[in-house]
């Protein structure tokens, strides 16, 4: 099956990754920068130009309404619109040079993965749910400056997970891929 994506001038071909298959599919997805080698994933690929997309990145919505920026919809762009060719993610604080969701009017930029972080997670060692905070409006005096799971230093300029229960100082960095063994998404 051929697929025309807004980021490419020529069609991509859909491939199903088989269990144990590692060859060229171990390339990074140009949408989210994660490896394209998960078993049973489908990817869109152009092997001649070394371009790969996870199925979910290739089919990502062009516009999203995000709770961190309810004023305007965020637009999916295949490359940063800045002269530098990079953007600084308002969610995690890291730079990026691939797909992002942005609001050009407000200069808001988010990695694709940060855009779809769950709003609520459960942590194995904590009895209460943790909620994603988009701002440091949470009382910082009570919160530690490090992630309670990985001990990584946290910047409260970026998004983070916290416990809403009074007197609790449980915090978790928003870098969920670091904590997949420790958390589960709560509906």
From TrEMBL:
This is DC1 domain-containing protein. PANTHER family: DC1 DOMAIN-CONTAINING PROTEIN, PHORBOL-ESTER/DAG-TYPE DOMAIN-CONTAINING PROTEIN. SUPFAM superfamilies: Cysteine-rich domain. InterPro entries: C1-like_sf, DC1. It comes from the Eukaryota. It comes from Phtheirospermum japonicum. Residues 67-114 form the DC1 domain. Keywords: Repeat. The keyword Signal does not apply. The lineage of its organism: Eukaryota, Viridiplantae, Streptophyta, Embryophyta, Tracheophyta.
């Amino acid at each position: 099956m051929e697929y025309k994506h807004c980021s490419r001038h020529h069609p991509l071909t859909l491939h199903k990754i088989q269990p144990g298959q590692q060859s060229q599919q171990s390339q990074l997805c140009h949408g989210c920068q994660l490896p394209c080698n998960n078993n049973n994933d489908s990817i869109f690929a152009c092997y001649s130009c070394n371009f790969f997309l996870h199925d979910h990145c290739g089919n990502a919505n062009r516009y999203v309404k995000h709770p961190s920026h309810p004023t305007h919809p965020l637009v999916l762009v295949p490359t940063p619109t800045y002269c530098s060719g990079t953007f600084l993610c308002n969610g995690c604080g890291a730079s990026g040079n691939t797909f992002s969701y942005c609001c050009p009017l407000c200069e808001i930029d988010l990695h694709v993965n940060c855009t779809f972080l769950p709003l609520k997670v459960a942590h194995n060692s904590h009895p209460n749910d943790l909620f994603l905070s988009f701002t440091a409006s949470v009382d910082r005096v009570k919160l530690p400056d490090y992630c309670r799971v990985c001990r990584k230093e946290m910047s409260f300029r970026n998004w983070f997970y916290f416990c809403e229960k009074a007197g609790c100082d449980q915090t978790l960095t928003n870098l969920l891929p670091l904590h997949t063994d420790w958390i589960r998404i709560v509906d």
